[in-house]
Amino acid sequence: MSATAPETPFWTRVVADAAFRDAVIEDPLRALAATEGVSVSTEQVRQLEEMDREERAAAIEEIVREVHVRGASARFGDIGPDGRLGGGTAP
After folding, report:
1. Does a structural domain hold residue 58?
2. Distance (Å, rounded) from C-alpha 26 to C-alpha 18?
3. What's the structural domain count of the chain?
């Protein structure tokens, strides 16, 4: 009996895998066809396909940035007025 590995959600893979992210920016359908184990909805694919490359790159980069900022804030605290993690205050 062989257990199948669970599929990785699309956006998790985009954030975690820079090569996959770059491939999605270039050509979402080709990237998905070349990668096994990623779950993605038809609507997500449709939205990405309707964007041109520059729009897709900007949207994906914004999502990746947001995920990293939220992760850093969760681990280290809010970003302070001086831009430092942990809520530091300006000198």
Report:
1. yes
2. 12
3. 1
Could you tell me the residue range of the domain that residue 20 belongs to? 8-76
Between helix 53-76 and helix 18-26 the angle, nearest 10°, is 150
pLDDT digits (tens, 9 = 90+) for 28-60: 999 999 999 999 999 999 999 999 999 999 999
pTM, two decimal places: 0.78
Residue 55 lies in a domain: yes
Phi, psi of 38 (to 5 degrees): -115, 125
Residue 89 belongs to a domain: no
Encode pLDDT of 64-86 as tens digits. Answer: 999 988 888 888 887 777 777 77
CA distances from 5 to 2, 19, 33, 84 (A): 10, 21, 18, 39
